[in-house]
């Protein structure tokens, strides 16, 4: 059996650099080629990381590519993933996996027909901080989770992204762009969702780009940028999820989960690391030291200091799962359920009605210290 699966990437945009840069940290995968509808972009990225540049068609035909990573814009995730599956290759998609339940069900049918795997970001829930939170829940430290709050609010992407247009179109917005990190982490911590409700609005009908090279350009906003949601989980827990790109500042914690025996404070699931704390009933908050999880180790510079960044962990876990014949953690079932939760929040806001889920999923297997170390390449 092969020790490594060949990886090809479609989409040479901003996020591709992180995949190419961090992939060597992991065993089971080898980055081999980059493709893009813009061959100049593919060539530049391939040269940067000493890979080969391909057209999309040639990448899909390449015998040395086993898994294709779909890093295209969300609006074409479904079309590109469909082409990958139809070409007989496994696919791992950036979030959101697809933009509708119907698209996801179609991809699942295509994958099952050919015996292929589908995986999807985000994989930040595999980080040391979130797996520590998972272990505290699994060990019963705070008791059964009964409720919680999640908050992801800022003033949008037009202040830093060079081409922020797609963030403000259907298929993006804060729920579908940033929401996957929060919803996926909630599912792995609490379990599947039963039904949702939400309110939404578009306070600003256009945005002014302040980032280079397009500073001063105006772009239209055609999807809600403030969504306040309510999630009822299958275990009975009720969690509020407030997302907005219309907030300049706030004082809310990223994620708090309320249990029968205490409260769990979870850091921003947009990142792998962060501080985890919890209370025992009414006692003082206990901040926990980082446990010896390899995905807690600070390994990259960030605007606010060093951070733990292990993007591609989910891809590596999927590759090894294929070779080992076990389920992978960033699974299609998990991604599809998260997509249904997020799109149902938008549907509820539009219709004014509760929306019940048609899908469900198992919580992905925990990734403890031993399991995480097994994903890393030997130095």
Automatic annotation (TrEMBL):
Pfam families: GFO_IDH_MocA, GFO_IDH_MocA_C3. Residues 6-118 form the Gfo/Idh/MocA-like oxidoreductase N-terminal domain. Keywords: Oxidoreductase. InterPro entries: Gfo/Idh/MocA-like_OxRdtase_N (IPR000683), Gfo/Idh/MocA_oxidrdct_glycsds (IPR050463), GFO_IDH_MocA-like_dom (IPR055170), NAD(P)-bd_dom_sf (IPR036291). Residues 130-264 form the GFO/IDH/MocA-like oxidoreductase domain. This is Gfo/Idh/MocA family oxidoreductase. It comes from Mesorhizobium retamae.
